[in-house]
Amino acid sequence: MLVDLQGPWSPLLGRLALSQIPYENHILAPLFVVVVILGLAIIAAISYFGKWGYLWREWLTTVDHKKIGIMYILIGLVMLFRGFMDALMIRTQQAMAVGPDAPGYLGALHGYLAPYHFGQIYSAHGVIMILLAATPLLVGIMNVIVPLQIGARDMAYPYLNALGLWVTAAAAALVMVSLFVGDFSHNGWFGIAPIFELSYSPGVGVDYWMWVMQLTALGSTLGSINILATVVKMRAPGMTWLRLPIFTWAAVASNIIALTSFPALTVALALIGFDRYLGTHFFTAGLGGNLMLYTNLFWIWGHPEVYFVILPAFGMISEIIPTFSEKPLFGYVTMVLATFGIAGASWAVWLHHFFTMGAGPAVNSFFSVATMLVGIPTGVKVFNWAFTMYRGRLRFETAMLWAVGAVFLLLLGGLTGMMLAIPAINYMVHNSVFVIAHFHQMLLVIVYAIFGAVTYWWPKVFGFKLNEAWGKAVFWLFTAGSVLVFVPMFTLGFMGMTRRLDYVFNTQWQPLLDIQVLGIAVYSLSVLAFVGMLYVSIRDHAKNQVSVDAWGTARSLEWMTPSPVPFYNFAVVPHINARDEWAWRKEHGFTDLRPDHYEDIHMPKNTGIPLILGALMFLLGFGLTWRIWWLCALSLALIIALVIIRSFDSDTGYTIPADEVERMERGHHERARAVDLPAAGVLGGAIAYGQADPAVKGQGAALGGGMTSPEGSRV
Amino acid sequence: MDMWRKKLAHWVRYLALAPVLLLNGCSTSHFWLFDPKGPMANADLYYMVIDVAVMLTIVGITTLMIIWFLWRYRKSRGKGTYDPKWSHSNAIEVVVWGIPIIAVAFLSYYAIEGTYALNPYDPTVIKEHTVAGDDPLEVDVITTDWRWLFIYPKYHIASVNELVVPAHTPVYFRLTSSSVVNDFFIPQLVGMIDVMPGMRTKSALLANHVGEYQGFSADYSGAGFSWMQFRTKVVSAEQFQQWTQQIQASPRQLSYAAFNEFAKPYIDVSGKPEYFSGVQDGLFDHVLGEVMNGKVWPLPMAMTENMVDYMKEQNARTSTRTSN
Amino acid sequence: MSSSTSKAIDPSSVELWDHSHHHHDVLSTRTFGFWLYMLSDAMIFALLFAAWGVLSYSHSFAGGPIPADFVKPGYAFLQTLALFGSVLAYGFTMVALKNGNKAGVISGLWGALILGAAFLALDINDVVHLLDAGITPQRSGGLSAFFILTQTHALHILFGLLWMLVMLVQVSRFGFTTEVVGRMLTLRLFWHFQAVIWVFVFVFVYLRGMLI
After folding, report:
1. Are B297 and B242 part of one and the same domain?
2. What integer is the mean pLDDT of A279-292?
3. What local confidence, expressed as pLDDT, does residue B15 receive?
4. C6 in contact with B at a CB cutoff of 8 Å?
5. Which of A19, A150, A582, C5 has the smallest set of CB atoms within 10 Å of its CB?
6. Under DSSP, is residue B221 helix (H, G, I), strand (E, B) or coil?
7. Structural domain boundaries enclosing B47
């Protein structure tokens, strides 16, 4: 049944052999040493401080939506950095390899990256930035914020939530392993039929890519089911649909897209898998295969995916701008309509990714007009944000800067997007760097919104604010970098430069490529500033402590919880009376957060099974990539067995008695009254946010212990 | 109509890119998209100018409006009145939905018109420019890993990495690939069209100016992709006749069997053209049929992993050849 | 321009905290999530059907065997009977569950399990015969789509049978706890859903296949 392969294969190790470790590569070998040393240092540090138990109980086995969200964001940030390093290599390679006389280094003919290596780098850059940086960052923020905004104690399915996280982590691990064991795919993040067929990609790169994408698809599908069920089933009493905070609306629209579109990715990739493993002919050029079927299937997912990532970003902007304009969002209802307008249109535009395939003019016209229709609700959103600021009292704190920056980027992205939507123009700029610049503008909208959201919600999660001066430095450096990279890139698009060139044949493009390298250098400074901001903020966190409502003018429900949020979110679930509940309570003087009495709280127990399932999925992906069949069979059998075993465990929750809740709440209220208390030393205060408060430390298990489920963790 | 279009395009080209042009020594010739040399590329530019004019008006005004709001309503020293409850206005709603709807409706008209005008299978812009009695030239294009083969069926000749066409004559292309997907693109003459294995696409161009233009593949096709360029020489009708006669005298022949050899993976880092005479009849359809029946020219493992040695070898081979 | 002024509200008349003692309905939350999962599964099948639609033109079979040569709607109808019988048996299981009849649930599950296994056995028998006759998924794009679509459905059936086995153990061991009843309800959704998918497979692959 299985296909014949080029190269050796053994039953024990599959295609894996020592020669697959690129120890001769001048870039990867030193990097590998650095990674090993770094990994050992982290392990040593955890052991030295005796934090393994803490790590296992509090983080690795947690089902708390906030901690899961934080771990998603951590994965996202690490992968964002990895994707940035790829970008740095792409930009420097292109600037160094211009014209036939450009010198070559490290064995390359021009520049320092040989063709196949360059292909892997931009493919990894795309996969990582979209599926393992933007998606986990957004999913992480949704995870933290959505339950808080609707007054829920946790997600609808806490266990599934942890599973989604660890599947995503497995995907991230698999893409990182591909750096040091074998190759990654070279045919772009979206896969180009039929390059991914075995005849043109005989190595393991495409297999790595395929399984990384499959794992993220699985993780995202699980996550979307969870968020939708949470919003539909777990809203606090009184929270009608038209009282839903706008970010939650965005999360709903976005996850409807994810739920219905990720299956298309699953199918497209599975069919590649059948082609590559069984030798079927879905996407081959000959024997009845149809390579455009792949392109259609992929973009049926791919374009909705774009809106899956941008709608939460729009939601974040819609939360930040009202807070710092000190007034309600303009046109809430139209904003919701616009969100669903974008989500609905996302299903009918996929063909604009390949107007040049030679479809008839009627088909191209349909998709062109459908694409432009997206411009209508998007335009409405921009206007609504503008009119939110109108008659406001604008404060330009860091979060607001990011949000306003995102709006300006969106305007530019809209201008260029409307150009690309017209086939007559698209024929000229399709596959050019103009397209690259356009979608990076749009993704920068997301990045700006994410940085804004992280700044905005950081005090809610950790109990202290990020440093404003450093935050602004990050913003301006990042913006300068964006201008220096993408203005030249748009220009190069008009000059006719196309994407993915590892050797640039036209020497006239050199100056603009050099400016982009300068931009990347500025971007690097912004990365350093970001690290600096984290360091300074954590160092000074005792001075930056905040109370319940960190910004003073926030409007939605999450700002009614103590900062940092206790693991049960709301001691007593609030009854919702208005659209902006917290603003409504402040207006009418109901700011006292102490209910008259407390009740028992039922919470889910920690469990290590999702972590183990994630590890097994990693092994399964690795085994499939290298065709180590025994490993695949073993990990698959263990996955099924674990799922069944878990289903026999009915003891998955525990109850916190009302007086215990009251004691913990008293601690929070005392802390809220005196936010300038000295903090609990080093990182502990920042990361274990429940332990940040020494005032409650004396109360036994109150806060610090509260973070742990009384029963501890179980596997 | 053509005159104002040209003038407008010219004007916009300079104005929009003034800062960049200063940087590049004040010349538009580097901006292939703004320097069309035939009606196809010219029409692309025409629609771009319309679209940018409409969108830039809206986006520009909105940007200015937001900047004004940011200034006027800033908390520190802003002059605007603060209305903490204001969040709805039917009049504004009508405007914010109305403007994008009108703009999209307007642009949709041009989008559809342009799609038909530039339909690569039957571009009306070329028909408009064709005078009766014009004898169009037909060229069959096959991409391999990683070279361009241009077949002139009428003359039984073929050229590699060089496309020679007469000026003022419509040229109709049929395109297919023997390996993976490429994009046929000559920025100053004609927009992109996918070149796909086992399938046949079409395109067309008309060149108004004698000269040499860059053509290349715009869709990633593997390791040799960056070297997949071809020179497009637009020559006078007489020169074209001379050229065909010259190639017909070329000793190398291209039979079906010879194509099988030619289509093997090969990265040509020098980009030097090659010529074939005696191209076997129906080669294009033969290749199309072969690929549909499952014929592949698979890549050896060595061309998808560490390419360092192969690239050096190719460079050494071609640099000795070019030095002759 | 609607900017309302705030009216004073009597604090005693507003409800600020939830005192309804409401508990989230575990079963309905679980069932809702399962509907969402089925939506994504339906998308998977929809796209496989789309792939089958694209790859079932006569040229998609590349000169090899075409469905009209090998599909046997009569045989597939036997499979239909087996699967629908299984769904019916599961229906009786749910009636027994409603009445709290443990023996009825167990015998109903066994019935559904055996009939489902019969469906799968018929399917495997069919596939083995096709492969023996040289009708393989490697022969052409059309055959690839035929096999992958039908066997993806069969894989779902296999998964359902495994689930039934687990439920047999859980019902006899735990009785009708919330978890067990929840799982029985979602399994019912899953099983009916697979039967519905089979109707599409039967119509678009086996019946339409006679005409290709």
Report:
1. yes
2. 94
3. 59
4. yes
5. C5
6. coil
7. 2-124
Q: Which distant-in-sequence residues (6+ apart) come within 8 Å of A179 by Cβ?
A: A28, A31, A32
Residues B51 and B89 in one domain: yes
Taking the Cβ of residue A115 and every Cβ of chain C, the question of whether any pair is shorter than 8 Å is answered with: no
Q: Which residue ranges form the domains of chain A, and what is each CATH number? A: 1-289 (1.20.210.10)
Q: In this predicted structure, what is the pLDDT of residue B80?
A: 87
Peptide bond connecting A564 to the previous residue in cis, omega within 30 degrees of 0? yes
Do B251 and B198 share a structural domain? yes
Q: How far apart are CA A441 and CA A493, in angstroms?
A: 14
Q: Do A418 and B51 touch (CB under 8 A)?
A: yes
Average pLDDT over residues A435-457: 96
Q: How many CB pairs under 8 A join B and C?
A: 19
**Residues B63, B151: one domain?**
no
**Which residue reads 């493992």 in tokens?**
B301
8 Å CB contact between A516 and A484: yes
User: What is residue A210's three-state secondary structure?
Assistant: helix
Tens of pLDDT, residue by residue over C95-144, are 999 999 999 999 999 999 999 999 999 999 999 999 999 999 999 999 99
Nearest to B89 among C1, C4, C6 (CB): C1
How far, CA to CA in Å, does A688 sit from each of A57, A607, B139? Answer: 12, 19, 70
pLDDT of residue A668: 85
Condensed to tens digits (0 to 9), the pLDDT of residues A68-111 reads 999 999 999 999 999 999 999 999 999 999 998 899 888 888 99
Domain boundary among B62, B93, B124: B124
Do B113 and B145 reside in the same domain of the chain? no
Q: How many residues does chain C have?
A: 212
**Are B112 and B148 members of one domain?**
no
Instruction: Among B124, B152, B177, give the residue marking a domain's end.
Output: B124
The average pLDDT across B6-23 equals: 57
Beta bridge partners of B230: B215
In a shared domain, residues B153 and B110:
no
Compare B17 and C126 and report the one with higher pLDDT: C126
Which pair of tokens denotes residue B190?
A: 């004609």
Together in a domain, B117 and B163: no
pLDDT at C10: 76
Contact check, Cβ <8 Å, C9/A289: no
Counting the structural domains of chain B, the total is 2
- Shortest CA gap C175–chain A (Å): 12
Structural domains of chain C, with CATH: 27-51+73-209 (1.20.120.80)
33-92 in C: which are within 8 Å (CB) of B?
A: 59, 62-63
What distance in Å separates the CA atoms of residue A515 and residue A525, rounded to the nearest whole number?
15
For helices A433-462 and A398-420, give the axis angle rounded to 10 degrees: 150
Which residues does chain C have within 8 Å of residue A287's beta carbon, measured at their own beta carbons?
A: 62, 139-141
Residues of A in contact with B199 (CB under 8 A): 285, 292
Per the CB < 8 Å rule, is B86 touching C2? yes
Q: What is the pLDDT of residue A680?
A: 36
Give the helix/strand (H/E) hosting B160: strand B157-160
B-chain CB neighbours of C3 within 8 Å are 83, 85-87
Whole-number pLDDT of residue A691: 38
Q: Alpha-carbon dihedral of residues B183, B186, B189, B191, nearest 10 degrees?
A: 30
Question: By 3-state DSSP, what share of chain A in percent is helix, strand and coil, each rounded to 5?
Answer: 65, 5, 30
pLDDT band for position A395 (cuts 50, 70, 90): very high
Weakest mean pLDDT among A679-683, B68-72, B73-77: A679-683
Residue of A nearest to C171 (CA): A648
How does strand B171-177 pair with strand B137-143?
parallel
The C residues from 25 to 64 touching A (CB cutoff 8 Å) are 25, 28-29, 32-33, 36-37, 39-41, 43-44, 47-48, 50-51, 54-55, 59-62
In this predicted complex, what is the ipTM?
0.94
Nearest residue on chain A to C48, alpha-carbon basis: A267
